[in-house]
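Notes from the 1:1 (GR / supervisor)

We went over the backlog. Supervisor wanted to see one worked example end to end before approving the batch request, so GR pasted a single chain during the call. The sequence is below; no edits were made to it. Supervisor asked that the structure be written out right there so they could see what the output format looks like.
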Amino acid sequence: MSDRIASDHPAVDTVRSTCTETATGVKLEVPADDRDQFPTDEVVRVALDGEERFARVERALTGEELSIPGIYDTPDLARDPSGATDRLAEWTDDHDVPAGGSVLIDVVEPEFLYGCRAPGETAYYDAREPPTESLSEIAKDLEES
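Structure output shown during the call:
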């Protein structure tokens, strides 16, 4: 059984991202100063209101910033979101986060598990160890085949 950890726990780093509108919805922009907390062009787990989802962290076309262009139900949908439901857009609507507003991204387990919450909220996450490198490679191979 995994341990529960609160967003205000000292082991959890928090990054303040900015919610921006795109032609297809919204994305989270991660400041350049915090980019070392995220893997680039990789799919990571993201907790939204206690539900585990998946997102791809992308490098901005210009500058050093990173962005999370959407959050989806499966790793495959995060890699290719065409036609998929973007849970980030739903979440920002549910939490009244406007374009230009802040979204706090909690770094629960770097390069593996993150969580989103509105400023002033406290979230609780199921903290667990990421799979070993060999197990994650096997899973990635299975997903690609």
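Supervisor's comment: Strands lie at 3-6, 13-21, 26-30, 42-48, 51-59, 66-68, 71-72, 102-109, 113-117, 124-127.
Batch request approved.
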